[in-house]
Amino acid sequence: MKILVTGGAGFIGSALVRRALADGHSVVNVDCLTYAANLESLRSIENHANYVFEQQNICDAEAIDAVFNTHKPDAVLHLAAESHVDRSIDGPEDFITTNIVGTFNLLRTARAYYEKLSTEKQVQFRFHHVSTDEVYGDLDLDDPAFDETTRYNPSSPYSASKAASDHLVRAWGRTYGLPVILTNCSNNYGPFQFPEKLIPVVILKALNRQPIPIYGTGENIRDWLYVDDHADALLTVLQNGRLGETYNIGGKNERTNLDIVQTICAIMDTTIGDGFDHSRLIEFVADRPGHDKRYAINANKIEIELGWTPSLSFDAGFEQTVKWYLANEKWWRPLLNTHQFGQRLGLLTDDLKANT
Question: For the chain, N or C: smaller number of CB within 10 Å?
């Protein structure tokens, strides 16, 4: 297929682009290159014969129309979004614009494009909207995991904007007959993640022997999925999922934030091997507003219907991730300097809080 990927220069998007090309698809990557996007994450495939990059904003209706009309995709995988919870609390405007208005813009263009396709092309076309488990709100420790019928109950401006975009996609499917599929995924981790999220923050703080701040008591629980497994799941759903359906994607790796930080510290103790106990750097800071207690994904539907399960274990995935960051300073150092998250190696600022 020729797949139009929005947000393909981001963390999950770049993993998806690399995987789609490896699987033999053609990719049109549409990304406006906000702070969290990085074309260096796509350096290995930038000259691939089946890859095209378009620097466009999904909120620019005219530009998106031109992309569809020029490249004539067989499917859309929509990942472009503002996604950092703390940023949404401090400034929700960008989240409303990108996640809601941008998604509406894509749906409007995709519908007009779809209606002009031949019957054969219409049968093949898919609009796959990629969302988050955060739209479901949070869980108590003894609550069952989120499934595809769980009531939406978003807590932050970020998750509320994603919930709104999910509803728009379903409405375009039901009202206009656009062939849509949705996925809601748990927390991702792995190489090429922008250094404001929990995993890279902890690694870089530990590497520079700075205090590792954890919100509250660190007992907030998330389900963790390796990013390449998520990319595999997205392509599986795109090709084999039932139209109009939602599929939850999870890693079956529920861990507290404190567990995650301690795991990373232990890996660094072993990898660096200089006798320093990195867990000594852990410190607890005031919790953030509306901090969800627990996320957990029931991924039975995608496993039973489509035969997908994650391939990488928690231990193997986190070890690979830590070692990747230690070996790829040339990727993350420019980000710290450019975006003022650090002043040269070892001078990270308070903007790098260990949160999810």
Answer: N
Contact between residue 80 and residue 7 where contact means Cβ atoms under 8 Å apart: yes
Annotated catalytic residue, options 31, 54, 133, 196: 133
Nearest partner of 245 among 305, 308, 314, 203, judged by Cα: 305
- Told to judge if 158 belongs to the known catalytic residues of this protein, a careful annotator would answer yes
Sign of CA dihedral 347, 351, 355, 356: negative
Kindly report whether the global pTM for this prediction surpasses the value 0.70: yes
pLDDT digit string, tens, across residues 101-127: 999 999 999 999 999 999 999 999 999
Per residue in 292-303, pLDDT (tens digit) is 899 999 999 999
- Residue 115: CB atoms within 10 Å: 11
CA distance 36 to 80: 11
- The Cα–Cα gap between 158 and 39 comes to 24
From 113, 114, 136, 158, the catalytic residue: 158
Q: Could you give the domains of the chain?
A: 2-188+225-249 (3.40.50.720)
Is 133 considered catalytic here? yes
